[in-house]
Amino acid sequence: MNKNRGKLLSFFSSWRLRWQITSLEKEKEESLLRLGKKVYELFIERKDWGREEVRENCQEVLSIEEEIEDLEENIRCLEGNKPRQVCPSCGEYIEGGSLYCPRCGFYQKQELACSQCGEKINPQDKFCPHCGQEIQKLSADKAKEKKDND
Ligand SMILES: [Zn+2]
Ligand SMILES: [Zn+2]
What we know:
Bound molecules: zinc ion
Distance between the termini: 57 Å
Strand order of the largest sheet: 1-2
């Protein structure tokens, strides 16, 4: 009886999460639409424009994508899958217990340090707790570049 109740509860939780993902996906579409509109306007105005002009819009889309990824991970865990870990370098979900990230090659036991002051930081930090420097997550390409140069 209890087991069934647990099953039912996790069914409802994962259903709720899926519903949240659906509404986030709608939000993402709207956000992409706004981005497209902005690009179109910039193009029509024939202004000299670059990445900076659309950075905010792109970051909005990226943060929605991250939220969706987190929710999908929650569903995976509800369905009884082993929790994965987030690569501190590129922010991708990877197999729990991995030593190296298959995406960017980052050694998972390596400690992250602030590029400004060199103090230890946590993967989830957006700003360095020691000096306030904004933490930039390395993209997979950048991290690879860095690894090749090391
Ligand atoms: Zn990685
Ligand atoms: Zn710092």
